[in-house]
# Entry
Amino acid sequence: MFALVDCNNFYVSCERVFNPGLLNKPVVVLSNNDGCFIARSEEAKAIGLAMGDPAHKNRELLRKHNVAVYSANFPLYGDMSARVMKTLETLAPDLEIYSIDECFLDLSGFGKFNLADYAAATRKTVQRNTGIPVSIGIGATKTIAKAANRMAKKNLSLGGVCILATKETARDALDVIAVEHIWGIGSQYAALLHKHHIHTAREFADAPANWVQKHLHITGARVQQELNGHSCLPLELVQPRKQSICTSRSFGSLVSSHEDLGYAIAHFTSKCAFKLRKENSRASLLTVFLYTSPFAEKEKRYRGTRTFALPFPSNSTIELQKAAQLLLDSLYRSGYGYKKAGVLVSGITDAKGPAVATLSLFDSDPLPQNEKQAMKLMETLDAVNSRFGQGTLRTASDNISGWKQRQEKLSPHYTTRWSDIIEIHA
# Structure
């Protein structure tokens, strides 16, 4: 038995935790550079604001309904997500963090308990500990739990909980779920199923297995098995190591100078290096890319990408920034206005394992002395930033003043920056 816990309108809910005046009011959160809607409260959905719509095309609607608009505050959302997951860890024997706002729980052996009471208590505990409202779907498989969660969110009469614990209740629910809303069925597969007159999850579950295997391959076959109550997708208790990590941004305004691009590339590299260290990983390849706007005049368009093979796998911000600046020097073309840039690290290995590099047979030390020193320096950097907030300590080249993305409606970093902590005066 599995439960899927999903935070309701997560980014909006995070903003409401620290600003209760937003409750019961329309609220939206914008993407990078304050471009499109990436989260909406139920009140915002009700007035017709659609996910992914550009904010500038909805100015009149936003003004008319006095919608609260926020720039995405990802450090806050990431911290609140960690708090939700920490709470859930205490409520189930095992869990799988599926995304920033979703988590699967292993409910094996919970059959002797009242699942409705358990789900209600879980919602109450998460709300009390974090302020975040959640919906819970329970089913015999992860796919059914996902379907149950969708019903819990769509049907307000269910009180945020939907339990499809038996085959009969699950099959009845599948009758009202369209194939395009089945977890694991993308738009192309959904179009194929509609073409063959398969429109609901139940019709898909009842389709000939050999036909599903032929047309939807192993992915579709597993989904069908899951819908029929046969668990094919166990919890991923250990997340697979990422093959690559990318940090990129579209700039709020065009960036032309080599200096400002250098600051941006250094900042992106710093982000990648931090993620590597957080996952106890090192990278052996680093890629830098620069793009002008695709809508620029043809003679003013440019797309450049270069990759550098590091002599040793590294997660040192300093070493990776050196490589990134070399790539930028070779990529940069003056006279262009750049709209987007980014850094990607790949060839990722375990930081605890031996460093594999191109060494002489006579080399006895797997890591050069400067890399060992860099590791100690990075430990200090991470410790300072963990205590006083990300960005407190950084390299001189990591300067965002010349290229900073547009975030005109950013809320304070309530939980990740000392200066933004809410003060309570007795």
